[in-house]
Amino acid sequence: MTETVRIRLRPMGADIEARRGTPLQDILFAYGVEFPCGGHGRCKGCRVRVLEGSLPVTPAQERMLSPAEREAGWRLSCQCRADGDLTLELAQWEAQILADTSSFAFSPANGFGIAVDIGSTTLVAQLLDLTRGEVLAVRSALNTQARFGADIMSRVAYAMEPGGHAKLVSVLRTQVGKMVSELLEASPVPASPLTDIVLVGNSVMHHLFCALDVSPFSHYPFESGTLAQKDFTARELGWETPGNPRVRFLPCIGGFVGSDILAGIFATGLHESSDPLVLVDLGTNGEIVVGNRDRIICASTAAGPAFEGARIYMGMRAATGAVSAVSVEEGMLVCHVLGNVPPRGICGSGLVDAVASALELGRIKPGGRFVDGAPSLMLCPPVKISQTDIRELQLAKGAIAAGIRLLIREFGISRDDVARVLLAGAFGNYVDTGSARRIGLLPFASDQIHPSGNTALLGAKMALFIPPDRLDTLARSIQHVSLSELEGFQDTYVEEMLFPDPSDLADHSAP
Amino acid sequence: MEDLKKLYDAILTGNFKSAKEITQQALAAGADPQAMVQQYMIPAMDEVGRRYEANEYFVPELLISARAMKASLEFIRPLLIASGAEPAGRVVIGTVKGDLHDIGKNLVAAMLEGAGFEVIDLGVDVSPEKFITALNEKKAGLVAMSALLTTTMNSMKTTVEAMKAAGVRNNVKIMIGGAPVTEKYAEEIGADGYSTNANGAVALARKLVAA
Questions:
Q1: CB contact under 8 A, B149 and A497
Q2: B15-66, pLDDT tens digit by residue?
Q3: What angle is formed at CA A193 by the lines to CA A188 and CA A197, rounded to 5 degrees?
Q4: Which residues does chain A have within 8 Å of residue B152's beta carbon, measured at their own beta carbons?
Q5: Into which CATH architecture does domain B2-82 fall?
Q6: How large is the ipTM?
Q7: Per mean pLDDT, which of A36-40, A320-324, A428-432, B108-112 is the most reliable?
Q8: Mutate which of A219, A370, A498 to test chain B, going by most B C-beta atoms within 10 A?
């Protein structure tokens, strides 16, 4: 028996040699497969379909996969080893990564700089010529920490296990360092030196990169005492970057709200606006900012992973085969599938559209129940949404909508006073804003809502051109609010789980 | 008692106002409060729980029904106490130390109350000491703990250990719940049972007090 086995991945077409007996998790991770539950066989996120070869069904898989799924060859890759040659189809294989190509005003500086947006799921880095403000190279990747848990709370939990913290710090620093060298290789920086590297990310990413204690994020009141900007030299991080540039991780605002949001505030000019603006980053952890040049308040809210297609019956990421948009044409549901292939699942934006369309057709009651009491609604065979999927979406959108409503109230204005609602992050930029309004996720008029791209990365780039302490001052002027401690939190959250009546939308509609 | 079927309906549909009115009228007409609870209110909340578990009802419907049930119970409870009627059981409930996510806990508390239990709700971020004090003071036979985060789940273990150390563990049955909780975890920390949802928690509590 040979010591190596051959693994072919479909539809990406990768052909890999691996040592016999290697856990599939180790092999697939390198190809961007994520393990939402951390590889414990508790979700179906990492499932693969065996096209050639065989993988045994373990008890954990028997619990998670239906007989029909097992029969069709689906397995949980986290529970399998590569004991023979295999051809596998991946349920997920492409991440949504949002770079930034927007132009911005700047005062030319000397040399070169790098801006990095460190998300819990994805990382994006850009190399800039600071004299011309021009992007010379871009690199993006999945956060390699994801193999230790998909969301920030499971990272915090992992960090508190023996050796976990050091591991998370080391993989993150190594990965960012690697991206920095790749950027430099892609576009060699000549005589003039690389002077500055600016990093942004949520509070947990900040603490892990900076090797700070994350245990304050594990329990109430979720407040850390080490939110400030941290400066390093590349060498201190173990990077052999030419010129040993300064590396700054911008400061956190408070709670889980980090420098990605701070950078977003800076990039959108919210802090200089005379009218009140709202900035929303829709994700597993949703962040909301309300403010103007006089005062800024912010909060985070746990929406859960429904917007990313996780914990959804046929949920998947926005990849080939995903139903990414649904509309109503002549009383019928029409699906758009990514990549011109047969549909095989639904991603977050498709789910929001599907529910909005079903509400429009009167197939779902305002309480969220299918009108005919059916367990599911077929969109385009075999893709359907289940009653449970609608419940997951109600929880997610309820958390965000309640957060927006409470924070606007806390700021002392009504939603009509909001001049613009700026959407940051990947999901906010892919979701149809009309559908988001219809399900009550964004309770604003459509001309108020503005998808704004990767504002975190844009803000990090802009930070390369300003005095290093300016954003620290801005961060300290922003007030972080703990939503669940506000009066009426539960009532608001529960009310926002319902879908709005179309007549409630009418006074806000401008289709 | 044809009219009391309306109480059942009012609770099931979450009609707060009508639940209150029917209760007042029925009591004024001399209805037996014990029978109202046993024959109409508990069955109504059982049906709410069934619909919740079957995904017909969701969090808002469940809470609206619970609110209607409470509106009715407000008038009935003093009469039950005066008549010396015993509740189905006494439960001390709270989210454990470090955890402040209480919607799940509130659903369980509402369903237990709807099932005729006396619920002593300690709120959120409840220390082991506070659980123990309440158990002693209220002579509760059940304690229900909840945690939503993997990072706060460990406080359940700490609380069980503190109850052992304080010598109260054997006087009570312990039930736990929350997103990260599994049957295995319940066994590991020495709890008597766990439930994945509010309706299951009622069945579990009934089983534990009968044991």
A1: no
A2: 999 999 999 999 999 999 999 999 999 999 999 999 999 989 999 999 999 9
A3: 90
A4: 218-220
A5: Orthogonal Bundle (1.10)
A6: 0.89
A7: B108-112
A8: A219
DSSP secondary structure string, A114-175? EEEEE-SSEEEEEEEETTTTEEEEEEEEE-GGGGG-SSHHHHHHHHTSTTHHHHHHHHHHHH
Read off the tokens for B193: 């049972």
When the candidates are 3.30.40.10, 3.40.50.970, 3.10.20.30, 3.40.50.10490, the CATH number that belongs to A4-90 is 3.10.20.30
User: Which chain B residues are closer than 8 Å to A219 by Cβ?
Assistant: 97-99, 149, 151-152, 155
Largest CA distance in chain A: 72
Query: To the nearest whole percent, how much of chain B has pLDDT over 70?
Result: 99
Whether omega before B78 lies within 30 degrees of 0, making that bond cis, reads no
Both structure tokens of A8: 């072919």
C-alpha dihedral over A338, A344, A347, A352, to 10 degrees?
Answer: 100
The pLDDT, as a whole number, for residue A509 is 40
Nearest-CB residue to A490 (from B58, B103, B151): B103
C-alpha distances in angstroms, A213 versus A216, A495, B2, B150, B185?
Answer: 7, 37, 64, 17, 26
Chain A nearest-CA distance from B7, in A, is: 22
Q: Write out A316-361 in H/E/C secondary structure.
A: CCCCCCEEEEEEEECCEEEEEECCCCCCCEECHHHHHHHHHHHHHC
For A345-356, the three-class secondary structure string (H helix, E strand, C coil) is EECHHHHHHHHH
